[in-house]
Each structure stands twice: as C-alpha cells, then as structure tokens.
Amino acid sequence: MTTAQIIIIATIVIYLIMMLVVGFVCSKKNNSVGDFYLGGRRLGPLVTAMSAEASDMSSWLLMGLPGVAYLTGGAEAGWTAIGLAVGTYVNWLIVAKRLRIYSQKCHAITIPDFFANRYRDKKAVMGISAAIILIFFVPYTASGFSACGKLFSSLFGWEYHTAMIISAVIIIAYTCTGGFLAASFTDLIQSIIMTLALISIVIFGLVTAGGIDNVIENAKEIPGYFSLVNIHNTETGGSDKYSMLTIASLMAWGLGYFGMPHVLLRFMAIENKDKVKTSRRIASIWVVISMAVAILIGFIGNAITNTGKLESLDGSNSETIIIRLAQIMSENHVLLAVIAGLVFSGILACTMSTSDSQLLAASSSMSENMIKGVLGIKLTDKQSMFAARAVLIVIALLGIILAWDSNSSVFRIVSFAWAGFGATFGPAMLAALFWKRSNKYGIMAGMVLGAVMVFVWKFGIAKIGGIFAIYELLPAFIVGLAAIIIVSLLTKSPEKEIVDEFEQVKAAEKTADAVSE
Length: 517
Fold this sequence. Notes:
With about 525 residues, the chain is an all-alpha fold. It has 18 helices and two strands. The chain has a two-stranded antiparallel sheet with strand order 1-2. The chain is globular.
C-alpha cells in the first residue's frame, strides 16, 4: 500500500468516526418516536437547508452528473440541472412553509401520516403511501450502497461486496442510533465536505488540463458537446439534435422535488416556520453552484483525457471521473493526498447523506404507518423506537441484497426512483396543500396511476422511441395529477371538518407571511 493510499484511508476513517460520534450524541436527544423521525421539529434554517439538499443530491452529484457531462457534454446534464434548480426554489417557495404548518396542525411525523391525517383515512391512504415509499426507497438506498462499494473497489482494489457491506454497516449504525437529528446534522457536515470536494477537484483539474481556456476549447472541438440544443453521440462521434420535448422532459426533473419524502420531511422538521425564507436562499444558492461545478468537472475530465493524462472512461465508468482525478491528485504531494482523502470522503458523504434519510423514511413507513397505522398494532414509545430500528436494519439488508450487482449506473437508478416519487407524491402533495376540493379517492387514484405510469412508460412506451423516448417523470406526473382532479370531482366532496382545517392552515400561513415581512 502506498503512502498516498494510507493518508487517504486515514482521512476517510477520521470522517467515518465523526459520523458515528454525531449519531451517538444525537441518540441522547431522542426521547420519543417524534424525535427519532423529525428531530422534535427543532432544525434551524442552516441545518434545514443544507440537510435537505445534501440528502437530495446523493452520489448523483459527485458521480452521476459529472459522468453524464463527461460523456455527452452540456445538454443532458445542463437541462437536468436547470430543472432541478428551478424545482428546488419553487419547492421551498410554495411547499415548505405550508407543509410545516399543515403537518403540525394534523399531527403528522411522516409523509404517509400527513396524507392519512389530511384526508382522515388511516387505512387505504396510509397503506398506499407507505407501500410506495418502500417500493421506490429500497432500490434507491441500494444505489447508495453500490456507489460506496464502487468507490472503495476503484480506490483500493477491495472486493466490491466487502466494501459495500462495510459502508452499509456504518450508515446503519449512526442512523439507527441517532435517527433524524443524526441524519440532519451529519448531512450538514457532509454538505460542507461535498463542497470542499467539488472545489478541490475543480482547482486541481483546471491546473492539470492547462486552464479554463483549454477546457472550453476542447469542448468546442467535440461535435455537440459544448451546447444545450445538441448532444454528443458517443457511438457515432457526431452530434444529435435535442428536441424541445426532450428538453422539457429533462427539466421535469424539477417536478420530482414536490414528492421527495426525505426533502419534505426536512420541511416538516423546521423549528421556526418564519425562517423558511432564509433556508430557501441558502438551499437555492448551494444547489445552483454545486451542480454547475459538478458539470464543469465532467468537462474538465474530458479535456484531461484528451491530453493523455487520464484514460478514456466509457459507459458507467464515466461516473468514476472524480475518483480518477482524485487518485491522480494524491500521487503528487502529501497535502494533495489529504485533500484527495477529503474528496473521497465527499463522495461517501453525498451517498451516506441520502442513504440515511432514505432508510429513516422507509423504516418510518413500515413501523409507524404499516404496523401501527394500517395493521392497528398498538406499541408504547419504547416499543415503537425498537420497531423503528429493527425495520431500518431489515430494509438496509434488502438494500444490500439489491446492491449485489456491481454493474448498475448510479445516474439511471436514481433517475427512475426520482420519477417514482415525483409522479406519486408530487401531484398528491400539491393537491393536499393547495386544493381543498381534493379528496381521499382522488389522492389514492393519483398515487396508484402515477406509480403505474412510471413503470409502463419506462419499460414499455419509451422503447417505441421518437417522441415517446422522454423521461418517464413528465407523463407520469401529468397522469397522476389528472387522476386526482378527475376522480376528486367525480366523487363526493370532503367533509366540512377537512375543509375547515384546510382554511385554518391557509389563514395561519398568511399570518406567518405578514409577521415575517
């Protein structure tokens, strides 16, 4: 083992120990199930903003997005990033405060809780929403475990499965002990490390590539690469036109934010609803800068490849571009090896920050919503905490099993899970917060049809090609929203109690807006 590898391992070990310490400290503050899943609704604006975005970005930010930019240029990565940036801002602008007020009003600590209490249906609505979380979160979590396994396998030549299991155990340990507070505070730390990792790679990469001018010149020389209306075709070496429909479907990534349980839970946990504006600004700025830098890293990596200093990376191997650059960095100086260790910790950070949130959301949907809500099994707070942790471990084990195949693409897996949540919970959340005529029948129809359409479009209709070869989130979101509207209007209006609560929440938000101004 080289000196550089020893330094990198030491840096990563220190980082992992920090995460475990945070989990242990936060475990002392968990006195109830509400504390375990929502941190007692006492997250400050900085922790809320950075935790929401760190848990959102996952390994997609440091592996998936740079990999797509490295291979095909600015179009796919660029329009995806623009859609996500707009979605982030709008989600914080219209959803965050009202969900915080509404979830407290109806005593909800999970997303299925919110829908069930909002529509006064503890069985069907809760059961469907909890099932959706389990369906889409287990493979989502598996992709995170897989990314960790690939990291250590590429870096040290460790056997993939061993590396993946060790990473999973660390994530399980601090999430299982510390719950939501641990996940949120480690997410804050991880967002800082992710930022340092991005900055370090950009600086080193620009120097290695010969400066920003060389990077831009290289991009311009590749057909369709330096463009938002064309995309580089890696098979033909030429340029393909990007249609407006394709651009619209990529920007539809932003619609996914309205349905992301791990982001919505952060909104529900905000300590002071009047601080949402501060959180929105922090989150939006960080997201725009981090995604722009991630795309730039893809461009830089391509330029370095063309200088002969880095081997060409094909297919899913392109997602290891940051790992390759960090390895080159570590070979130049002891200090650079420490920085490379931070970069690898950053990759771990973005993966772990999403996996911990997904595990919490999935375990809460089973222990709180399925066991206690749907099945009606009564548990004490202590028994609920035990059940939550036990379910979390079981779900993590399922994630490990699904992550056993090392040949999957992080970007593609995340995009499918993102579409699943966006198309099922997105329309439902918007209707629940802003349309008082919506009812439980419409919400259930929207969730089910949205989920079904994601699978049908992805594995059926999209294969027809042509105008149908678009991101499945857009058509599935439209189908889910249409189902909510049509079925709600065709069935009976919600009870007066539900409508009155809706109006009370609406009035409370107006009062909060007046106070904050």
